[in-house]
Amino acid sequence: MGRTDRRVLLALVAAGVIMAAGAVLYFANIWWLSGIVTLSIGAWLAGVLGALYGDPARRPVLIAALAASLLYVTFALGPWFRSQVSPWLLTTRGLAALEHNVFQRPRADVVLTYPVQTNPYGSMGSTAMPLGGWPTGGGSTLITTTNVTGSVVWAVPTANIPAGADLPATTLVQVGHWLCAWIAAGIGGIAVTWARRRASRRSAAASEPDAAVNDVSRLAGNDGASEEQR
Asked: Is 166 helix (H, G, I), strand (E, B) or coil?
């Protein structure tokens, strides 16, 4: 197969992968998310086994692919990184724009839950709402409600988030992040392969002058031997 045929084949494969990823994102649901998470975990385990017991020559590629995918999932969906780092990733912004601007999915309401006031009657064993409601006062965020948890009054207001605000990770965004983890694994493996090839070319180029000197010395030795024979 020639170089042009390989490029055409790679282009067709890449187009097919892009179309498949777009279909997965368009029909993203909880089952798709569960499937890709399960498949990704299985691939990680297989990669670990391959790195431990497989061909040592392929070990750097597998380690780089595993590290890249794990780091991306950590930054995008990790417990702390999900709220502090993920909203600022370009992939998060791109997936949110794809969901709301291209697929025209409506923006869901965001539920905010926070404690607003200590129940003064909780210490006395009463959790019933007193006549006239809970005592008011405090800061501007004080909201009284009948939803009592222990000795704390919890308010659960709902609010429509504007178009430019940060949204929580929807199912489509989470599926997209797991797909991006596969892309990150491929990029990590390709980067290590390219670096190894570059290093081998440099070592080959560095050894070429020594080979040329050895060839010249061999030729000179052969010429001297032929003159002695004469």
From this structure: coil
